[in-house]
Amino acid sequence: MSKKLTFKGSLAPASDAHRIKLSTIKGKTGYRINKFQIIPSTPGAASFEFVVKIFKKDSATTSVIDFTDSNLLAVAYYQDAHHFEYPSSEDIIFDNEIFNQDIYITCTDVAGGSIICNYFLQLETMALTDTQSTQLTLKSLRAIASR
């Protein structure tokens, strides 16, 4: 039986990655992203272009989106030009990958602003077998060793 966990928070552009603690001692709980949304703290107040990314390991905060990065779980792009003739837009892409360790969220304002970005994240939880747990944990250890 799976259940949903929700997380919400605020990120300042170019700040350190925000850590969401998910790891357990035995690693027998798996997680998958079910929903990911972002919105500025003051919609319509200024121009901004947020790039918010979720990683499997602590990563540098940049606006570069690289889908070949095996640690990238999700990315959201939100832009609002602060003009009525240019509607805001939001693009969200996430993988259906299962993970069992902590995740990290970063935020960049490509426009160079300092407006806070809010996020909403919903994860689906699932029980893992011993084999699945071991595979995911080893995969995470390899990612950490490759830093």
Which structural category fits the helices and strands? mainly beta
Shape field: elongated
Find the CATH topology. Jelly Rolls
User: What's the main sheet like?
Assistant: 5 strands, antiparallel
Q: Gap between N and C termini, in Å?
A: 35 Å
Q: Any idea what the radius of gyration is? A: 16 Å
What is the CATH architecture annotation?
Answer: Sandwich
Topology as a string of helices (H) and strands (E): EEEEEEEEH
Give me the number of helical elements: 1
Count of domain modules: 1
Strands of the widest sheet, in order across it, are 2-7-4-5-6
Structure notes:
This protein has one helix and eight strands. With 147 residues, it is mainly beta. It has a single domain, classed as Jelly Rolls (Sandwich). The longest helix is centred in the last third of the chain and has 16 residues. The mean pLDDT is 84.
Summarize it:
The protein is mainly beta. The protein has one helix spanning 130-145; strands at residues 4-11, 18-20, 29-40, 48-55, 72-80, 89-94, 103-109, 117-127. Strand 5 (72-80) and strand 6 (89-94) form a beta hairpin.
